[in-house]
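Table 4 source record.
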Amino acid sequence: MNPDEAKISKTTQGKYSIDFSKSKETSDLMDSFLERLNNKSYGKKIGPTQVLAYALSRLKEEDIVLIQEQNLTTRDLLQKKYDEYVLKTGEQISYDDFIFRNLKPKLQ
């Protein structure tokens, strides 16, 4: 997990707890949304749980893929490229040789 992200933990009762202390940007975004949502004359106060539940219900498959791709490390991206290359070409090349072959032109 990126150290700048919010920490999410699940309790034994199946409840989630989100700690935004290391993610000021996310915390500020949530605060801003809650302030706007609660700027009303009637109704109960809207909390983070309602915002999250609504947002999750709106996610589409392409959003899921995008979020997954945003969390790939450089090593993950290299492995993905290697796997795609082997699948496409059928060439039996080691991971190290694949990386070297792709870096070689840049090293000269």
